[in-house]
Here is the input.
Amino acid sequence: MTIAIPDHPPEGPIRALGLLSGGLDSTLAVRLLQEQGIHVECVNFFTGFCVQSHTAAIRNPKPGAPPPRHDALHAAQALGVKLHMVDISEPYVEIVTNPRYGYGKNLNPCLDCKIFMVRKAWELKQELGFHFLFSGEVVGQRPMSQRKDTMPKVPREAGAEGWLLRPLSARILPPTEPERRGWVDRSRLMDFSGRNRKPQMALAEQFGIVDYPTPAGGCCFLTDENYSRRLQDLWQHRGEKRYTLDDIFLLKAGRHLRPAPHFKLIVGRDASENNFLAGFRQGRTAIRAPNLPGPLALLEGSADDADLELACRIVARFGKGRNRSEVEMDTETAGASRRLRVRPLAAEDIPPDWYL
Ligand code: SF4
Here is the structure.
């Protein structure tokens, strides 16, 4: 017996749930479906590693720079779609620490990450009664998760095979269920591939979209070489591949130095970062010059008197008293304060391999 596949779902408009980063690609994917009269809502996942506005919010903005914004929220507002924001940071730890398909160039487990996010989006789709999922992925744009051979793997392993539409590359990919059922007109979708951004920019112009973030930097800190080195260092010196949200937020701010295996320093680079670090003093030693402008630093690990003196000398090197023969430095551990007089280290006395 052949079961007829209906042209349309039984009732109401077609409803699609998209994964929205707020970048140009996911924005265009939304617009392509809206053009076809499809009701679109989006989901954005919080992993703790999102670049988004974090760096801009932590550091002092450049004079005249626009205030930091949340790209996905901004895009959702501009597109007129509802945004579901879902915190997946807790189960995501397992994806980062134990990825089945391994890491990319840095500690980015892109394939596992995509599979996990599509699985979570699929659960939301089922719960909220959407007809299919879509994303702004483009064939060949990223080396790990957006290759022609790995793209089908994502929905298959996420339990959503046939139900994840990629509107920007749809015409060079096998038809998905919403296309086969006539819910989406495949001929009005795109055939983009590769890393060339010009077709997307031309389509953006066609849609009158001018305000979108630059694609540089990837969608999360895990693609960043320096950040990955700091995370690797954290795991190595803890003796286990685990992290908390505090850990991964702190890796985003300040200079990080490890003068010895048993302790490291996080040194604020401007007033804004100092304020940010001040919120993380608990469980760490805070170091600061009491009478001179300079950074707030946090010491993580265990430090004896000699370590503390060395730490103060390093922190003093980044403050206004760096050229003095001696400066006072305050340290505070669990509410207990000490004042030390130290000689600031010279720049050349800090070996390059202390910097993480
Ligand atoms: S860059 Fe980060 S968020 Fe994007 S797919 Fe890779 S691991 Fe996931």
